[in-house]
Design brief:
Layout (H helix, E strand, L loop, with lengths): L2 H9 L5 E10 L11 E2 L1 E15 L3 E6 L2 E9 L13 H10 L4 E8 L9 H16 L6 H16 L6 H8 L4 E6 L5 E5 L7 E11 L3 H18 L10 H7 L5 H25 L3 H17 L6 H13 L3 E4 L5 E9 L3 H15 L5 E4 L7 E4 L2
Parallel strand pairs: 4-6
Antiparallel strand pairs: 1-3, 1-13, 2-7, 3-6, 4-5, 7-8, 9-11, 9-12, 10-11
The protein binds alpha-D-galactopyranose.
Length: about 375
């Protein structure tokens, strides 16, 4: 059954618009979007779709096909932060941030794994944003919609995320990675055709979800802001390792290590773009693994499951591997010759079984298109 048919069955009339937006992986540039750095994510084939119709009253009703028995209804005058205290806040937050009045019936369907570090929340926000923009003729640019989606998450959901996930979900292009300047929001689409080189990006979803993630995320962000201010900078964007070394005695060891990750990771993003353009895949892999080590040792956002996935993939012969997203669980990626995928999968599975971790899931991620909306009537 199509989502439009489900919508009719649920609400007794046809939807007016559908919006669709993808989850993402990030090749490199982790935990530096909020330091005004550069990131290199791409959209994956898992997507969230929302179907929307306007209502005559001012009630907003949100239902998900993944949780069909839980219907969330909120008056549009009551759109305050955490209005529903549930996943629907991602939808309600976007409505609030777009400044849209009136009532809506909204049906959500999606297959982006939740809690897997693949940005299911950004997919939901961006699908909602792109659909409302088309339905109501708001005329917002993709950048404006990404920023509205980020504000929804920052101010409405209360997660102080950067702009990476919403930007790539909105602006990604099939067969390309997105080089995003997180200060200016300038983008470059970098061709990424791993298959023709006999390679693949294997995603290893560890299935691990560790608690306290949001608090840890906010602390990392704060340490970077503090380190920048010790350097007399507004962000770590232009900081150098020698500046950091000189100022080391004026910072805590934690601030120093967080900033060292940010500065080295920014360098790795530019090197990775060069490697990608030159088809130097072994070099790209090396940068991925260095990124993981920096996230593990200096940024301390990895965890035993992610480290084990990376070690096992590398032992089998992956070119490089690293955690993606916020960390503390979620997914890792491995850049690998296609022929090694079965061996990597069994090596990771065996290592997990031997350690007593839950069984991981695997899929190959190719770069897919960003968000789009379809008017239905
Ligand atoms: C989460 C946030 C992003 C980004 C990553 C880490 O996915 O939503 O803004 O900071 O973590 O790179």
């Amino acid at each position: 059954m199509s989502l439009a048919m489900d919508f009719e069955a649920m609400f007794g009339r046809a939807p007016e618009v559908e919006g669709s937006a993808p989850g993402r992986v990030n090749v490199i540039g982790e935990h530096i979007d909020y330091s005004e750095g550069w990131v290199l994510p791409y959209a994956i084939g898992f997507r969230t779709t929302v179907a929307i119709a306007r209502r005559d009253d001012s009630t907003i009703t949100v239902v998900s096909l993944q949780r069909p028995n839980k219907r969330i209804s909120v008056a549009s005058s009551a759109l305050t932060p955490r209005a529903s205290d549930s996943w629907a806040d991602y939808v309600l937050g976007v409505i609030a941030e777009l400044g849209v009045a009136g009532g809506f019936d909204i049906l959500v369907d999606g297959n982006v794994p939740t809690g897997a570090g693949l940005s299911s929340s950004a997919a939901l926000e961006c699908a909602t944003a792109v659909a409302l923009n088309a339905l109501l003729g708001l005329g917002n640019s993709q950048q404006d919609l990404a920023l509205a989606a980020q504000r929804a998450e920052n101010d409405f959901v209360g997660m102080p995320c950067g702009i990476m996930d919403q930007a790539v979900s909105m602006m990604a292009r099939e067969a390309h990675a997105l080089l995003l300047d997180c200060k200016t929001l300038d983008t470059q689409h970098i061709p990424l055709d791993l298959a023709s080189a006999g390679l693949a990006m294997l995603v290893i979803d560890t299935q691990a979800k560790h608690a306290l993630v949001d608090g840890e995320y906010a602390q990392r962000r704060q340490s970077c802001e503090e380190a920048a201010s010790v350097l007399g900078l507004s962000s770590l964007r232009t900081a150098t390792l020698s500046q950091l070394a000189e100022a080391r005695s004026k910072m805590t060891e934690t601030q120093f290590k967080r900033a060292r990750h940010a500065v080295t990771e920014m360098g790795r993003v530019h090197a990775a773009v060069d490697a990608m353009r030159a088809h130097e895949w072994a070099e790209l892999g090396r940068l991925l693994t260095q990124s993981h080590e920096s996230l593990r040792d200096d940024y301390t956002v990895s965890c035993a499951e992610l480290d084990l996935a990376v070690t096992a993939a590398m032992a089998v012969g992956a070119f490089g591997a690293r955690m993606v997203g916020g960390g503390f669980g979620g997914s890792a990626i491995a850049l690998t010759p296609v022929g090694l995928i079965p061996a990597i999968e069994s090596a990771v599975k065996d290592a997990y079984a031997a350690t007593g971790f839950s069984s991981p899931r695997f899929f190959v991620a190719t770069p897919e298109a960003g968000a789009y909306a379809t008017l239905l009537s």
